[in-house]
Design brief:
WH_DNA-bd_sf; 457 residues; 16 helices; Aspartate Aminotransferase, domain 1; Aspartate Aminotransferase, domain 2; Arc Repressor Mutant, subunit A; 7-stranded mixed beta sheet; globular; alpha/beta; 14% strand
């Protein structure tokens, strides 16, 4: 969606939600709106069509477009909150019409497969498309090494419980990290060790000691746009992780869930550093496509293929054929590349806005991490602030923020972090939300310790 089209849609949507157009009222004609906004007729047609998909307006043949009834609008009017918590895509940023077309085509092309149990590893035709897609992130492989999963969570759950060729049993995770991985590990009573990750990275001596002495089966890491702190490892850091993994026979589970949002064309994954024998490369499609499709793909070393095939088969026989078909058509048609570029631009503008306004008005000592560009998350550190009180006050003012407690192991020292997500918050809401956070911080009691002053990491 172009910036102008987005502006027009936001403007009309805001007028409807704020009551400037009354329920049942006819909207200005397409021609009049095109003159008002100085744009083409086709732009207004697409705006009206997408607002209709959001159930804000409806069309009457030969009569025009009208605002929907008040009782239908009321949930939308009430939902005027600023959401800094969500990790699911903004529905308004995804063309549901494109997905509907792909779904209809998948029903036609994969009709026979729907009535069978296909390969647990995934449809061969889709795996071939995944190989081409991953090449763009410098992950060179073959379809024999690609597995399709019912979401990244299924993959993480299987890896946590299955034995590995190195014969080791313990799992190392960054702290903090993705809560879903911690949940999978806890559910299976795995022995888990944490290693601190800050915006400055990790301590290399500690990492090597764990690899050398603690029987680490695999190290789970989010090198790019980390969840929750948002930062990325440098190329040198990725290479060092790869070298240590090979040296100490430790597998790396590389969760590259936001590869499509990368703005640096030279930012390669760990897989690219000549260590494909020890890296499991995992990609979710939930941030670019609909999370409800439940799709993820992984490239695995040859040594893991037979065992993973067995574990995948016992988990669900096969991933949804329809979901796989939709993804395959979406990639083949070029829709995936087009949509990924749109999402990258959209989120990059938002994270840049967050960085700009946060650096300008928030106390510097509380800014824990703000990515230079790209990604979805940043984090605030509130070590000397009543965090519960702050979260409650923000909630009362319509601001949703997320403490990161669930993203730490229970045995690991927790930091008083708040994760800020921009995935469902546009630039206007980001500025308003950060200003409200700044106001509430001024009213919170801050006790500074002379022995441990604030620092902006």
């Amino acid at each position: 969606m172009t910036n102008k089209k987005q502006f027009i849609m936001n403007s009309i949507r805001s007028d409807i939600i704020n009551g400037l157009y009354k329920p049942g009222q006819k909207l200005p004609s397409i021609r009049k709106q095109s003159q008002e906004f100085d744009c083409s007729l086709n732009t207004i047609i697409r705006v009206y069509q997408e607002l209709e998909q959001e159930y804000l307006i409806y069309s009457r043949p030969k009569s025009g477009y009208f605002v929907v009834a008040q009782e239908v609008l009321s949930p939308l009017i009430q939902k005027k909150r600023i959401d800094f918590t969500s990790a699911a895509p903004d529905p308004s940023s995804i063309s549901q019409m494109d997905f509907r077309q792909c779904l209809n085509k998948a029903m036609e092309l994969f009709e026979d497969s729907i009535f069978t149990y296909p390969d647990p590893q995934g449809l061969l035709s889709l795996r071939q498309e995944i190989v081409k897609l991953f090449h763009k992130q410098q992950v060179f492989s073959s379809e024999q090494k690609v597995f399709i999963f019912s979401g990244a969570q299924q993959m993480l759950h299987l890896l946590a419980g299955m034995p590995f060729p190195n014969g080791k049993t313990n799992i190392l995770v960054e702290q903090p990290t993705y809560w879903g991985m911690l949940s999978a590990l806890k559910a299976q009573n795995q022995t888990v060790i944490g290693i601190e990750r800050t915006p400055n990275g990790i301590d290399w001596a500690t990492l090597e000691r764990h690899f050398q002495s603690n029987m680490i089966k695999f190290f789970y890491t989010i090198p790019r746009f980390h969840n929750p702190i948002g930062t990325s490892y440098t190329p040198e850091e990725k290479q060092r992780i790869a070298e240590l993994a090979q040296a100490y026979d430790v597998y790396i589970v590389e969760d590259d869930y936001l590869a499509d949002l990368e703005t640096d064309t030279k930012a390669d994954p760990i897989w690219a550093y000549h260590c494909s024998s020890h890296v499991i490369y995992l990609r979710s499609f939930s941030k670019v496509m609909l999370p409800g499709l439940r799709l993820a793909a992984a490239v695995v070393p040859n040594s893991l293929i037979p065992l993973l095939h067995l574990y995948k088969h016992t988990a669900d026989l096969s991933t949804s054929v329809l979901s796989q078909g939709v993804l395959e058509i979406f990639i083949k048609s070029g829709m995936y590349d087009h949509h990924a570029k749109h999402m990258k631009s959209l989120y990059n503008h938002r994270i840049s806005k967050l960085k700009e306004i946060s650096s300008k008005i928030l106390p510097k000592e509380l800014l824990y991490s703000i990515p230079f560009s790209g990604g979805l998350f940043s984090a605030m550190n509130l070590p000397n602030i009543n965090r519960e009180e702050l979260v409650k006050k923000l909630n009362n003012r319509g601001i949703d923020v997320l403490p990161t407690d669930q993203q730490f192991l229970s045995s690991f020292p927790k930091m008083d972090l708040l994760r800020l997500s921009i995935i469902r918050t546009d630039e206007t809401a980001i500025e308003e939300g950060i200003r409200i956070i700044a106001e509430e911080l001024e009213h919170c009691k801050i006790t500074r310790s002379p022995q441990k002053p604030f620092s902006w990491i």
